[in-house]
UniProtKB/TrEMBL annotation:
Molecular function in Gene Ontology: oxidoreductase activity
Entry protein name: Cytochrome c oxidase subunit 7A2, mitochondrial
InterPro entries from the UniProt entry: COX7a, Cyt_c_oxidase_su7a_sf, Cytc_oxidase_su7a_met
Location in the cell: Mitochondrion inner membrane
Organism listed in the record: Gasterosteus aculeatus aculeatus
Pathway, per record: Energy metabolism; oxidative phosphorylation
Family, similarity comment: Belongs to the cytochrome c oxidase VIIa family.
A Pfam family assignment: COX7a
Length: 84
């Protein structure tokens, strides 16, 4: 049983070892240029089509949520008169 735990420990140590790091390209300067250029777009849409889809989805869900809230508040419980 302890052999299995020790083997798992060694595999985990190899997996998270610092000697096999992968170099990641720094994309910050490219993103800064993209967001700072003056192309007439608002900042929340400069990220590309994904940002546009996220923005439109958020707007649709917000409008639907507000409509549902207004409908619930105006469609309150019906008053039932009891016969005496």
């Amino acid at each position: 049983m302890n052999r299995h735990i020790f083997a798992l420990h060694q595999v985990a140590r190899r997996t998270f070892s610092s000697c096999a790091r992968r170099q990641v390209e720094n994309k910050v300067p490219q993103k800064q240029k993209m967001f700072q250029e003056d192309n007439g777009l608002p900042i929340h849409l400069k990220g590309g089509p994904g940002d546009a889809i996220l923005y439109r989805t958020t707007m649709v869900l917000t409008i639907l949520g507000e409509d549902a809230r207004a409908f619930r508040s105006t469609a309150g419980p019906l008053k039932v008169e009891l016969a005496s």
